[in-house]
Amino acid sequence: MLAAIERNLRDARVAGISDETRFDAAYKALMQCALVAMLASGYRPAANEPGHHQTMIQSLPLTLGVGNDAWVVLDALRRQRNANDYTGQPITAAAVAECLAQAQALEKALLGHLRTKHPGLLAPQT
Length: 126
Hints:
This protein is an all-alpha fold. It has a single domain (about 1-120), classed as Up-down Bundle (Four Helix Bundle (Hemerythrin (Met), subunit A)). It is built from five helices and no strands.
């Protein structure tokens, strides 16, 4: 899953694709980080029920110690993703940049958390 997060972040950085696709890749990396954090903490989201993205974002203060300021931004990105998916609301370059920055910060927090709290979940360094 960590490799998938990195692949999505790499895709989100590709300037030659649409802002919508870049946003989707960054948002997917966010959700993957939140999922790994939940699983590492012993929780399993109900992915087949509506609202699981919101639940995973809301769990981040408990699973990764994400502050309220970041939580509010992540939830706004979730709402923006929903608006794009369900109404076609366009994604701006600024939204892509924010989503990518948040995803990168969340990945960094996740890796730090895993190193200190769950080192057995990480592949050995070579």
